[in-house]
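Run log, item B.
One chain of 130 residues. Sequence copied directly from the ordering sheet:
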Amino acid sequence: MAANPADFAKYRSSVGALVSGGEPPQDGGVNERVAALEAKLEATLPNLATKGDIEGVRGDIKGWMLATVLTIIGSMLAIGLFIKPSESRPISPPVAVTAPAPVIVQVPYPVQAPPAAAPSVPDNSKRPKH
């Protein structure tokens, strides 16, 4: 899209008026915007964490981490030391598994009837000629 020279001229005239014209320079509602930012900052500042708040949270995190590590170590010790295989039942050696005998199914072969004899046609070659 091509730029319109009239847009540049309008921009130059507005910038020139702000820089050379009004008091203080570039006064386009800056005072009102700064006042709004200061009001937001004053409203937000009491809700931010202080150094004491962060130290308290850091102490809580250290306590929870220590409790978690001790719980994991205790669980591992309980599993490794106190839970033993039963000595009353000796472990038997593995038994060799043999394959079962195959099952053979014999299906009788269907008996077919012999093909029907074709009607006999007399052989004319052996007949006497008249």
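Observations after the first pass:
- Residues 7 and 13 are 10 Å apart (CA to CA).
- Residues 13-48 form one domain.
Flagged for discussion on Thursday.
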